[in-house]
Input
Amino acid sequence: MLEHRIEQSFEVRYSYPVCFTRGALTPANPLLSDLMRALPPGARARVLFAVDAGLSGAQPGCIDAIEQYALAHADTIELVRTPWIVRGGETSKRDPREVDEFYGYVRDLRLCRHSYVVAIGGGAVLDAIGYAAATAHRGLRLIRMPSTVLGQNDAGVGVKNAINWQGRKNFLGTFTPPFAVVNDFELLASVAAADRRAGIAEAVKVALIRDRAFFDWLHLQRFALAVLAPHALEPMIVRCAELHLAQIRNAGDPFERGSARPLDFGHWSAHKLEELSEHRLRHGEAVAIGMALDVQYSRRLGMIGDLAAETIMQTLCDIGFTLNHEALGHLDVEQALDNFREHLGGQLCITLLKGIGEGVEVHHIDIPTMRACIADLQASQRQARAETVPLEVLS
Ligand SMILES: NC(=O)c1ccc[n+]([C@@H]2O[C@H](COP(=O)([O-])OP(=O)(O)OC[C@H]3O[C@@H](n4cnc5c(N)ncnc54)[C@H](O)[C@@H]3O)[C@@H](O)[C@H]2O)c1
Ligand SMILES: [Zn+2]
Output
């Protein structure tokens, strides 16, 4: 029999800046140091820098730049050790070594919840270090400096982190907003072209579900995006990050407790296609195919017209995505939908389109129709056109 019940209830307000800059590690740029300045007079921020090996390999000067930056801002920043180089890409999420090493540093260097971790890297390193920073002492202050396009316009700006466990992607993770995000466009120069292009898929995604004007702009800029021209890539990153942040802020479910996942448009099949291709397909490349599939499905259901569907497909192709990848032939629709539902929890919730810029959630997918859409894509003769782009779009 119930004798006593206390209804506990409180709210926590989260707020963090997402900044865009150039040369964040140049001593003359005060941004990073200012972010860490809210200290009692005389105290200095104790800071551990974790740097993606892909970045430090491609831009070897960045380690020295961090040390010079800390020296120039010695009134604010105390480096607790030389910048720590972390293996880049999925390895850092797959293998527990990085997380373990991080906990070792926290213990040995006596970092506490007021210390800062500045993680500079692609989405994978940000996820792994973010997870480690969120769990050591129940949470150190994390400043993310995403160094890939996908990191800057999606993975690095939100509230999630994760590592893989026994081959299960993102099996362990937390919802932990960062202390701040610093997007430095100059870090992108050394990212492989295919990795830069893959990040554009997330912009097309968020435009398709939320912002028709942004989609129209992406369509207009598609050839400039195909050759990764900074004058198109940079505003694309800012708008894409803005839309992701607005979704997290305004949709009423920042920690994803309900079933709706509009930002996962095109993702139910993408996750599977990545696996089926043994990760030869990058996440963004798989998302482009996943979106094409769900666009076909929305068209077959009469939710969007032929012209809109055609424009979307052409935009994706012109940006340089291949939509009829062989992995489609091995896609088990039922299993992929089931895995997607299980990972997100609750009932199946798939975002489709009822127009460009208008995502809509459905809870049922007709398997034979979806299979027919796969066949449509496989039969499509559409080719990525990135290689044939006129050079004048670079200007
Ligand atoms: N937490 C989230 O909300 C969220 C959202 C989307 C994706 N993700 C995760 O992000 C990861 C994908 O991120 P990604 O697309 O950035 O790829 P990535 O992190 O795998 O990086 C791609 C490659 O680029 C290298 N690299 C990074 N910066 C570089 C630079 N400036 N110059 C040269 N090389 C550089 C890396 O070492 C790696 O080899 C996935 O693990 C995905 O699950 C997380
Ligand atoms: Zn994604």
Q: What stands out?
A: The pocket of nicotinamide-adenine-dinucleotide (ligand 1) is lined by residues 52-55, 58, 88-90, 93, 121-125, 127, 147-148, 150-151, 154-155, 158, 160-161, 170, 187, 190-191, 195, 283 (CB under 6 Å).
